[in-house]
Amino acid sequence: MRPEYLVGRRLEQVVASWHLYGSEDPSGPLDVWLIDSEQDFTRVTTGSDWCLIVERSAPGPGYDMAESGRVEVAPIRDETPFADRLGETIRAVDEEWDPDTGRIALVITFDSGARVRCGTWSGDLSLTGG
Questions:
Q1: pTM as predicted
Q2: Looking at residue 123, what is its pLDDT?
Q3: What's the CA gap between 104 and 96, in Å, rounded?
Q4: Could you state, in chain order, the average pLDDT of each consecutive group of 10 residues for the chain (130 residues)?
Q5: CA distances from 97 to 83, 100, 101, 106 (A)
Q6: Measured between alpha carbons, how far is 44 from 118 in angstroms, rounded to an integer?
Q7: Which residues pair with 55 in a beta bridge?
Q8: How many whole angstroms separate alpha carbon 72 and alpha carbon 69?
Q9: 27 DSSP assignment
Q10: Distance (Å, rounded) from C-alpha 26 to C-alpha 90?
């Protein structure tokens, strides 16, 4: 899926999934879902081949993995760089590609000039702002 359809849309909400294990701090996010002004859901996550997956799909419920912990799905608070971008309009989206694995990053630029980079690092989802 090409994420250019996000340009011109306002970021209304972000939902994320987190791996929780015992009393340890949550790891992740594993996935993020961007909910825009058109009420479309865009899921950003990593694939088993370490590529970055961007697809239209709604978040599902969390789930229990018994002794391996659980995955919680909830709206973000301040846990990701998207928290400060809520209510802003997306001005541009740029993709970074690797010839072996495919898409490795999605850079979203907002009207304020701020950017959020969604990337894959050693198979994990990495979110950085600037």
A1: 0.91
A2: 83
A3: 6
A4: 92 95 82 96 92 94 92 89 96 93 93 96 88
A5: 26, 9, 8, 9
A6: 8
A7: 43
A8: 10
A9: E
A10: 28
